[in-house]
Structures are given as structure tokens and as C-alpha cells.
Design brief:
alpha+beta; Alpha-Beta Plaits; eleven-stranded antiparallel β-sheet; two-stranded antiparallel sheet; 13 strands; Lipoprotein
């Protein structure tokens, strides 16, 4: 069976891809954005970002319904960042991209998602994988063991050789990730070469494109991989705007065309190298979104799950069931049968495989 693909995430998929839109065209008109002043591109360097990380997962929408994807991922984002802070990890940003794959009937058959993180150091990003991801639970189920992920989680931590931000990140943007496998044992010389290329040409090239908010050059000793990440701004062109945003970034060449002449072999993407990031909750840290939460101060800890957030949660500080929280927990939850209306999200105790 052939598969149709659409670059979009959660809410936007319902508006822009109903009926199984074909893959967005590549090479459409560029955004009418003038580049920032790039004579001294070094002033845009991200001095406080020393690590970066990718998490890759494949979601099964027959287990986690499409309508719940945005809510669940946003819930994870808030609580996993809180857990990172509690573990003393300095995670500066978290982006949640996604790519939807449609079948011939126009139904979403698979969702490729995950996260792109920026950390203060490589150790912070490595700790996020080993401490937060490995131990985070929702309704008593470990993140990596959720049935909708089908054991697909992969985490990759990188050191930042160079990174720059040319424009503020607002809402709804795209991320493109290009990776190369290192093929030489002379890694010290290659690393020095890449750092010099970033400082002498790649950063300025990214700046002058005028459509990028950020660009980063990454290095992984553990995986022997080099990665280039570019984040494209939202392009306010004729609807659907996400097609212009994604197609524009997908058509951009790598920042240094000579990269393929180095002792590097480009790693082909499994499905795509360009993802859309919809800002699920633009103010995820805004207390007004969590009116029932005990944590309602801007500088305080991130909120705990609460009765009324749409998920039947059990945490160390909060136990929800049909008696304590009927708003989130169905009356049949806990009877040993996954009844109509229940799912792995709303009633994990009944609906998760034993």
C-alpha cells in the first residue's frame, strides 16, 4: 500500500491535511524576509548552548488517537522539563516536531515525532536521556514503554561546535536535520576543520539566508556523527502556511556544500529530514493555563497534573481515580477491561498490555 505524507503536526493536521494531502512541494517561493545585519555574524553566536539532543519516536494513532497527540506531548513537555530541573539539568529549550504519514484512504497511519533540545552542556543532554526519559512515567507507565511508541524511542546527544540565533523563535516553525557519518580516524583534525568552517563561512551563510531563526553544527563522539540543524521561521504566505514554511526550508541546501567532500558520508533520513513544530501551548509555562495547579507563580516549579487536565494520572503527590477525580477518570476505569471510551491515556491500568 502506498503512503501519503504531510509535513504538519497535531492541530494543524486536522485543518490542513484532511483527506490525505500529498507531500508538500519543494522549492516554492521564499519568505519575504530581509536578512539581519551579517557583517559580524559572530555576534549572533549562542554562547550558553553547549549541548543538543534529538529524541525520535514513532507513534501509532490506533493506540493514541490523533486528537490526543498534541495534549499528551504538551503534557510530557511540561513535566519532563520540570523533572530535568529537579535533577539539576540545564535544558534551555525543547522543540517537539512531528511528521504525519497518511494511508490511501486519507487516514493518519503513523506519526514520527520526538524532540530537539538545547542544553547548557553535552552532559546536561546526556543526563536528560539517562535520568529524565528513562524514569518519566505517565499513569505508572515508563515513557519508553508506552504501547503507542512500540519500543521505537531513540535518543541522541551532541556537543555543539557552533550555534547562532539570528531571529526570535515565535510560533509555528520548521526544523531541518542533516546528518553525516564520520569515516576517518583523524577525528581531532576533522573536528578542528568543522569548527573553523562554522566560524569562517557557515554561520555567515546561515545569517544571510534571511529565512533562518537558528543554525547549529553538532558533533557526537559516541555515534561518530556530525549534524547540521537549521530552524526556519514561519512563512506567512498564502494558506496553508505550513506548506510554504516546510517546503521553503526543505529546499535549502546545507550551509557548506563542501561538507560532502570531507571524510563524511551523508546519512539518508528514514522518512524526512524536515519537520514542522506547532506551538501547542505558546505559553506552556504561563500559570493561567494551570488554574487548578498548586504551582501558580511565574518563577515557581512547573505544575503537577491536576484533576481536570484530561488524563487520569497517578503521581507521588496525587492519586486520581473515579472517586477522587471523575472529571478525568471514567467510571469503568479499574474494572480490568478496556471499555469503550477508555484508552492507554485515559485508563492505563485497564488498557495497557499486561
Amino acid at each position: 500500500m502506498s503512503r501519503r505524507m504531510c509535513w504538519v503536526v497535531a492541530c494543524a493536521a486536522l485543518a490542513g491535511c484532511v483527506g490525505g494531502a500529498e507531500e508538500a512541494p519543494v522549492g516554492e517561493a521564499r519568505a519575504a524576509l530581509g536578512p539581519p545585519s551579517c557583517e559580524d555574524a559572530a555576534r549572533y553566536e549562542l554562547r550558553d548552548v553547549g549541548g543538543a539532543q534529538f529524541n525520535n519516536i514513532t507513534l501509532d494513532p490506533s493506540i493514541l488517537p490523533l486528537a490526543d497527540v498534541g495534549k499528551v506531548l504538551a503534557n510530557d513537555q511540561v513535566h519532563m522539563l520540570r523533572a530535568a530541573a529537579e535533577n539539576g539539568l540545564h535544558v534551555l529549550n525543547k522543540h517537539v516536531p512531528a511528521f504525519f504519514i497518511f494511508d490511501d484512504q486519507g487516514n493518519v497511519s503513523q506519526i514520527r515525532a520526538g524532540g530537539f533540545y538545547q542544553c547548557a552542556t553535552l552532559l546536561d543532554c546526556q543526563g536528560y536521556i539517562s535520568e529524565v526519559v528513562a524514569n518519566y512515567r505517565l499513569d505508572g507507565v515508563l515513557f519508553v514503554d508506552r504501547p503507542e511508541f512500540n519500543h521505537s524511542f531513540q535518543g541522541h546527544a551532541y556537543e555543539v561546535l557552533g550555534g547562532a540565533q539570528f531571529r526570535p523563535l515565535t510560533d509555528d516553525y520548521a526544523i531541518k536535520i542533516t546528518r553525516w557519518q564520520i569515516t576517518t580516524t583523524q577525528t581531532h583534525a576533522l573536528r578542528a576543520n568543522l569548527t573553523a568552517r562554522w566560524n569562517s563561512r557557515m554561520r555567515e551563510t546561515a545569517c544571510r539566508r534571511g529565512t533562518l531563526a537558528q543554525a547549529l553544527l553538532l558533533w557526537s563522539d559516541a555515534e561518530q556523527v556530525v549534524a547540521e540543524v537549521v530552524i526556519g521561521v514561519k512563512r506567512n504566505e498564502p494558506p496553508p502556511y505550513f506548506e510554504a514554511t516546510l517546503a521553503g526550508l526543505a529546499s535549502e541546501p546545507v550551509l557548506d556544500p563542501d561538507m560532502d567532500a570531507l571524510p563524511l558520508v551523508r546519512i539518508p533520513p528514514d522518512v524526512t529530514d524536515t519537520y514542522f513544530v506547532l506551538t501547542y501551548w505558546p505559553g506552556a509555562f504561563e500559570p493561567s493555563l494551570w488554574l487548578n495547579s498548586p504551582s501558580t507563580t511565574p518563577d515557581g516549579p512547573l505544575p503537577e497534573p491536576f484533576c481536570g487536565d484530561g488524563s487520569c494520572n497517578t503521581t507521588a503527590a496525587n492519586v486520581e481515580n473515579v472517586a477522587t477525580c471523575p472529571a478525568d477518570c471514567l467510571a469503568t476505569c479499574g474494572n480490568g477491561s478496556c471499555d469503550p471510551g477508555e484508552s492507554a491515556v485515559t485508563c492505563a491500568v485497564d488498557c495497557l498490555p499486561q
